[in-house]
Specification:
Layout lengths: L3 H40 L2 H18 L6 H4 L6 H28 L1 H7 L12 H20 L3 H24 L4 H19 L1 H5 L10 H10 L2 H27 L2 H39 L4 H34 L4 H20 L5 H5 L2 H26 L2 H40 L1
Helix pairs in contact: 1-7, 1-12, 2-6, 2-8, 2-11, 2-12, 4-6, 4-10, 6-8, 7-8, 11-12, 11-16, 12-13, 12-14, 13-14, 14-17, 16-17
Length: about 425
């Protein structure tokens, strides 16, 4: 029998090793586009970046629901066959949704692009169904690999995506292909991520799908119904808020500002989200195991939040103070406005990075209804405040400053709520243990 202290040491070592595997892959995946972004900003205009940003935003809006969020449930069952049924279920939903997205892309792409305020985007909306399937399948496989602790495959998928996107967009930029290369590179990168993530199952000829039962799939679909009925609207609302923000910016500040904001998302928010989500994958698995084993949750969450906070304080602090001159120096003087926006948004980006693991807890504790209500309330306030400021003042900096403040308050309050939730759960486990 392994002594308790020795077991704790082993768990800590495994946790750190898994975090380092994912975080190192995510960091490399983040560094590649960051390294080449100064070249991209010199071969693409803010307007072209704006078109890419709008495409990715609405793609992300659909991709969060691509698997019906059943992919998140893949981590939870004790039996491997149940996990395989959930995997097949989520992939089937992803395929169906992608086929449904094909019809509006074929018959209404001009109207959709005009509504977005970017008519030039119309021909490239045909890439949306393909991009949607690749993005949805990739996030499904991230959770399968997470369940099986194949963190190296997830890391390799992210690196393959970063390399492919950067290579295609750079080649297309120097070749004068414009926004076509940006969107083709985005789609190719998602396909590369998928191939990297499912290479082991591909080598095994997807043996995980053999002998599946449609009846068992229906049973599990009902058992985990909170994921499509509660978690999907939750994720969709978060993504929709970003899309509506971009629409407001395009409508009241112009597509050029969308391009500047798109660069901020590309080099700051999205890379930070990749690293934060990589760590969250590990903690999600560890929290689920800890709850099943009756172990405390709060120490796991606290340790992760403190680690992320220490890692991020310096870069985001520098960004808040020197954002505008740094962007002008690195990306060219035409992108100074992006640096100004980045400095305004730095506090909320920092908290979004640090607090990312907190969003895993309600799924483990089956408190997704309450989580959704909190998120819906705060994001509604954020959108209303942003819209009110930009419509009344037409001053983009004030609107982004207001958004940063509201989002910071939201992230702090949500994390406090989650920590209290963990503390209450741990106390109940303690009382149960005492009574036994």
């Amino acid at each position: 029998m392994v002594p308790a202290r020795r077991l704790t040491t082993l768990m800590r070592g495994a946790f750190l090793r898994n975090v380092l595997t994912l975080a190192s892959g995510a960091t490399l995946a983040m560094a590649i586009p960051l390294l080449f972004s100064p070249l991209l900003t010199r071969v693409y205009s803010p307007h072209e970046f704006a078109l890419l940003t709008l495409f990715v935003s609405w793609l992300s809006n659909l991709a969060v629901a691509a698997g019906g969020r059943y992919e998140l449930a893949v981590v939870l069952p004790a039996e491997e066959r149940d996990a395989a049924h959930l995997l097949a279920l989520s992939l089937g939903i992803c395929t169906l949704l992608s086929l449904l997205a094909l019809m509006p892309a074929l018959v209404a792409r001009d109207a959709i692009a005009a509504w977005l305020g970017a008519p030039e985007l119309a021909p490239w909306l045909l890439f949306l169904p393909v991009s949607l399937w690749c993005a949805g399948a990739a996030q499904i496989w991230v959770n399968r690999n997470n369940r099986l602790r194949r963190y190296d495959a997830n890391a390799q998928g992210r690196i393959a995506q970063a390399l492919t996107v950067t290579a295609v967009q750079l080649a297309g930029g120097f070749g004068g292909l414009g926004v076509a290369a940006l969107i083709i590179g985005q789609t190719a990168g998602q396909a590369a991520a998928l191939m990297g993530e499912w290479r082991r199952d591909l080598a095994a000829r997807f043996a995980c799908f053999s002998g599946l039962s449609s009846q068992q799939m229906k049973t599990l679909a009902w058992q985990y119904r909170e994921f499509p009925t509660v978690n999907t609207p939750h994720a969709f609302v978060v993504a929709l808020q970003e899309s509506l923000l971009l629409w407001l910016i395009a409508r009241f500040a112009g597509t050029s500002i969308v391009g500047h904001y798109g660069l901020v998302l590309r080099v700051l928010k999205l890379p930070a989200a990749i690293v934060g989500q990589a760590v969250s994958q590990v903690i999600y698995r560890d929290l689920a195991e800890a709850r099943t084993a009756g172990k405390p949750l709060l120490p796991i969450l606290k340790k992760t939040v403190l680690l992320l906070g220490a890692l991020a304080i310096l870069p985001f602090g520098l960004l808040m103070v020197l954002g505008e001159p740094l962007f002008a120096l690195v990306f060219g003087p035409d992108w100074a406005m992006a640096g100004h926006l980045a400095a305004l948004l730095a506090p909320s980006f920092y908290l979004s990075f640090v607090c990312a693991p907190a969003f895993m807890v309600p799924m483990v504790l089956k408190r997704q209804h309450t989580s959704f209500a909190i998120v819906l309330g705060w994001l509604s306030v954020n959108l209303l405040v942003f819209a009110g400021v930009i419509i009344q003042t037409r001053h983009i900096a004030w609107a982004f400053a207001a958004m940063s403040l509201v989002m910071s308050l939201y992230l702090l309050s949500y994390t406090v709520w989650v920590m209290r939730l963990c503390r209450r759960e741990d106390r109940e486990l303690g009382r149960e243990g005492t009574s036994c």
